[in-house]
Specification:
single chain; four-stranded antiparallel beta sheet; disordered N terminus; Arc Repressor Mutant, subunit A
Length: 255
């Protein structure tokens, strides 16, 4: 294939077969489409950032994209935090694995969110793909330098950090609440971070959700059924999608 492209790109015209011309054209078109995608900053979503120029500045630092299948490890515990990640599609989970085989999930990150900024010199937990993942790498030192030069980027990073710390604080209080309140809090947070659509797509598995909320998967399944009978939520015909029928009640439970 490379030979065909090389032949097609020479300045001196060559006699190519119809099949070679078709193949060379397809390769060029694919390369052009990929180049346009990677260099179109307007297509890169950065949650919590309203300024198009700040989005473009952050997106200009990206490397990739990279893709991981669900359950694949992105970063290991104690890996250096030289690179952060900007999620394009899918979701990731930060978790800790224990010697007895148990797993604790500390956080989820969704499209448009950057993770790794709040870590120290090394990642304190495993970072894994909670769903098929597409993401860009951001070099930490480059983002540091950009924040020093542009106060708007520094403000965005500060806001992102505060939001992440707030979610971590809320998560630390889950254990003193009953299962229904925990799940309601999770739904409300996911709804806000996913664009506030009544049809709420849950990108991670229900087992991930149960581990995050500190309950058994059977408990979560019974809870979803009970809330559906009450008319609070409804299972959609689309897989892993819940329709929020009574968002006011969900907000009340979450509060």
């Amino acid at each position: 294939m490379d030979n065909v492209v090389a032949r097609a790109s020479r300045s001196r015209p060559l006699l190519l077969t119809a099949k070679e011309r078709q193949l060379a054209s397809a390769v060029r078109n694919a390369a052009n489409e990929r180049r346009a995608y990677l260099h179109d900053n307007s297509q890169i979503a950065v949650n919590g950032c309203e300024s198009q120029s700040v989005k473009a500045s952050i997106a200009a630092l990206r490397q990739g994209p990279v893709r991981y299948e669900r359950d694949k490890t992105v970063f290991c515990e104690n890996d250096p935090t030289d690179y952060l990640m900007l999620i394009v599609d899918g979701a990731v989970r930060s978790c800790r694995l224990y010697h007895n085989g148990d797993r604790g999930i500390a956080a989820f990150y969704l499209p448009g969110e950057i993770f790794g900024w709040n870590e120290g010199a090394k990642y304190s937990m495993y970072v894994e793909a909670a769903a098929d993942l597409t993401a860009f790498y951001l070099k930490r030192s480059a983002l540091d330098s950009l924040a020093v030069r542009d106060p708007r980027v520094a403000e965005f990073i500060l806001t992102t950090t505060k939001n992440e710390l707030r979610r971590a604080y809320d998560h630390s209080l889950f254990l003193v609440r009953d299962c229904k309140q925990r799940f309601a809090s999770f739904l409300l947070d996911l709804w806000k971070r996913s664009g506030k659509n009544d049809a709420l797509v849950i990108p991670m598995s229900y087992l991930d959700v149960a581990d995050y909320l500190g309950m058994q998967i059977e408990t979560l399944s019974r809870l979803i059924t009970a809330m559906e009978r009450e008319g609070t939520i409804e299972r959609s015909s689309t897989p892993k999608t819940l329709i929020l029928r009574n968002r006011e009640l969900i907000s009340l439970l979450a509060s």
